Design the sequence.
């Protein structure tokens, strides 16, 4: 069981309640990754965003910094918005992180749940599906690390193009992050890539048919079905009440900010409590969170669980404590529970 | 047995199709192209339903649910939908559809595109995972409700019966243009609540 931590580099408050700068928020993530590495957390994944409340727009640059300071932890993106990027450059940048980290880089490709990157980099939202399909197709070709010829509508053609640097292992670890579109699950299986499910609401067991779909699609298409991963939001503090108390006010601000853009009414505390109780918010003491992870991951038979440990401006010291508790307590407890 | 056609095999379409199968209806599901592309998805996620083309789903069904991105509404088979009850579960999303303050209810656009169909707005305000998890038998305390809006009394009654068969109370929000009170930006949007609360939210919009 791989157990990881994910963040979008949310800008936190310092302990006197002031929001820190983007630069400080990036350094905070690096400190957290170093601590996670020391505590034996398996992986960290940083998600690309282009919004003021998130400090990470280029995950691989932050990962390169982390790579130089850590020894064991796998260094991923979660996700890299491939649709609005150039597959050749994405491959080069992650192959570079792979070199710095001695083979610990992994890219999680996705379409993202925000759209700011489209106008920012000059892409058309009406090509939302085509951009991802074509670019994923090219990226999969690049994974062989041999000269590539490729033609499509969304990027200039390549003729026998060789791309550098090559990785030492000969293949960059590559996942596809999927938020619940069945077509994306099938597409991932079609490319023979591992699937990372973003489960950010509702009961995790609801996704069991998707895991089944991935495996059956791979079987029908003659590709390899890899162990499936999942990532879900949550937070850990010394007690259940403290975890909710620290997490909720910032989560609500962040959720309502996004909700205002998407037409959702403000979050109510009862909805939050229900999600903590029965849904996909892994919040509480180490034991509560470990039990919930073991049960969620167990119900889906996944081989990886990543906790998105930031959602809004939770203060820096509470975040460090959450990372510490995840590595020192939650992860060992989950392993023990799942071995039983 | 009622035959239900679902146009759209994405997150929402697969959930609605599963509810329809669970309610004992014959269910035909169509994606955007060749049914072969969604056959496995239907087999695994909606056991009991059949993957067909959009034209076939429209032609053979008594009720057709539109569960595709709103931006693609002009791809639905107008001819085959003539005379049918069409349930519009789509939502306007400004990031894709652009900012349109002049729009009124997006279901009015759909009705204008399908002048010979009876359009009812339903299944648009509840999140697809809540739809998937919240259905209960009639009479269950706290049973969740789905608001519906339409201009034709018979079409509304048939939609209400379908909503009931999926495990939800139906609350009539008013005419199709009153559908704006169920759309993004209203208190009801995203709500997974019982009938009394849904009525309050509609009144507050």
Sequence:
């Amino acid at each position: 069981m791989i157990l990881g931590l994910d963040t979008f580099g949310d800008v936190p408050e310092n302990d006197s309640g002031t929001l820190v700068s983007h630069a400080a928020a990036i350094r905070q993530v690096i400190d957290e990754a170093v601590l996670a590495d020391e505590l034996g957390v398996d992986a960290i994944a940083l998600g690309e965003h282009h919004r003021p409340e998130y400090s990470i727009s280029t995950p691989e640059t932050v990962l390169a910094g982390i790579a130089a300071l850590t020894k064991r932890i796998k260094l991923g993106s979660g996700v890299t918005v491939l649709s609005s990027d150039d597959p050749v450059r994405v491959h080069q940048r992650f192959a570079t992180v792979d070199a710095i980290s001695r083979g610990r880089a992994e890219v999680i490709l996705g379409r993202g749940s925000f759209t700011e990157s489209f106008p920012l980099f000059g892409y058309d939202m009406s090509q939302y599906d085509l951009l991802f399909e074509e670019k994923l197709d090219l990226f999969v070709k690049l994974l062989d690390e041999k000269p590539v010829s490729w033609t499509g509508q969304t990027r200039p053609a390549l003729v026998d193009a060789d791309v550098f640097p090559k990785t030492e292992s000969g293949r960059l670890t590559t996942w596809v992050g999927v938020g619940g579109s069945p077509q994306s699950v099938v597409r991932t299986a079609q490319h023979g890539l591992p699937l990372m499910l973003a489960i950010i609401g509702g009961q995790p067991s609801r996704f069991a048919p998707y895991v089944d779909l991935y495996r059956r699609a791979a079987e029908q298409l003659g590709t390899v079905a890899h162990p499936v991963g999942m990532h879900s939001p949550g937070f850990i503090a010394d007690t259940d009440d403290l975890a909710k108390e620290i997490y909720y006010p910032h989560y609500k601000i962040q959720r309502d900010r996004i909700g205002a853009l998407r037409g959702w009414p403000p979050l109510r505390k009862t909805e939050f409590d229900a999600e903590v109780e029965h849904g996909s918010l892994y919040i509480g003491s180490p034991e509560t969170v470990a039990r919930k992870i073991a049960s969620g991951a167990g119900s889906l038979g996944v081989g990886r669980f990543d906790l998105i440990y930031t959602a809004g401006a939770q203060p820096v010291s509470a975040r460090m404590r959450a990372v510490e508790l995840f590595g020192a307590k939650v992860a060992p407890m989950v392993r023990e529970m799942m071995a039983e | 047995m009622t035959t239900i056609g679902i146009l759209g095999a994405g997150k929402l379409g697969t959930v609605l199709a599963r509810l329809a199968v669970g309610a004992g209806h014959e269910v035909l599901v169509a994606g955007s192209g060749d049914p072969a592309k969604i056959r496995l998805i239907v087999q695994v996620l909606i056991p009991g339903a059949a993957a067909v083309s959009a034209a076939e789903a429209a032609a053979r069904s008594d009720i057709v649910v539109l569960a595709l991105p709103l931006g693609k509404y002009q791809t639905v088979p107008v001819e085959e939908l003539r005379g049918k009850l069409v349930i519009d579960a789509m939502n306007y999303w400004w990031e894709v559809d652009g900012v349109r303050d002049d729009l009124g209810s997006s279901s009015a656009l759909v009705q204008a595109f399908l002048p010979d169909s009876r359009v009812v707005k339903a299944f648009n305000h509840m999140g697809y995972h809540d739809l998937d998890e919240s259905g209960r038998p009639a009479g269950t305390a706290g049973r969740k409700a789905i608001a519906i809006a339409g201009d034709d009394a018979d079409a509304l009654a048939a939609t209400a019966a379908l909503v009931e068969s999926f495990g939800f109370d139906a609350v009539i929000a008013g005419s199709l243009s009153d559908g704006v009170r169920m759309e993004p930006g209203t208190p009801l949007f995203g709500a997974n609540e019982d009938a009394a609360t849904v009525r309050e939210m509609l009144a507050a919009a």
